[in-house]
Amino acid sequence: MANLNEVKLIGRLGRDPEVRYMPSGDALANITVATSETYKDKSGEKKESTEWHRCVAFRQPATFIEQYAKKGDLVFVEGKLQTREYDKNGEKHYTTEIVVGNFQLLNSLNGKKASTSEPAAAAGAASASPPNGLDPDDDPPY
Q1: Which residues lie closer than 8 Å to 44 by C-beta, 6 or more apart?
Q2: Of 34, 36, 99, 130, whose Cβ has the fewest other Cβ atoms within 10 Å?
Q3: What is the Cα–Cα distance from 99 to 128, expressed in whole angstroms?
Q4: Angle, CA of 135, 139 and 142, to the nearest 5°
């Protein structure tokens, strides 16, 4: 059966990745990806619209992101949308993020593109589910 919850983005990292390690030792990386489009308004003036996407990666993709990704990099992100509820100061909040299953750098990395097909720099299609020890009741990890 086809996966009906799939997201694919090409955009630029809006800031350096934030990486932390869970009690289990698994890496967790938070990134923000900006996607932009240009269009002409009614008067013919060129406009640009930017969308910001919160992404979270676990394990191998998170480790790759920590080692190689930085603000401004052109990246490909593939994953699934996930909406979580969390409590902050007694108030319920919701956040929607992309859980990264595949991450690739599209700009040059030492003269080569870094992709999941390169063993030395493989981001892999690691499990997209949060590792044990991630408390969904905690504040979002970004």
Answers
A1: none
A2: 36
A3: 6
A4: 105
Alpha-carbon gap, residue 86 to 44, rounded angstroms: 44
Element at 29 (helix H, strand E): strand 27-40
Chain segment 43-54, per-residue pLDDT in tens? 999 999 999 999
Residue-wise pLDDT for 53-64, tens only, equals 999 999 999 999
Range from 70-74, 76-80, 95-99, 119-123 carrying the lowest mean pLDDT: 119-123
Residues 6 or more apart in contact with residue 135 via CB below 8 angstroms: none
Note every long-range contact of 130-135, with CB atoms under 8 Å and residues 24 or more positions apart, other chains counting: 130/58, 130/99, 131/22, 131/24, 131/26, 131/28, 131/58, 131/59, 132/22, 132/24, 133/22, 133/23, 133/24, 133/26, 134/22, 134/28, 134/58
Domains of the chain in sequence order: 7-35+49-121 (2.40.50.140)
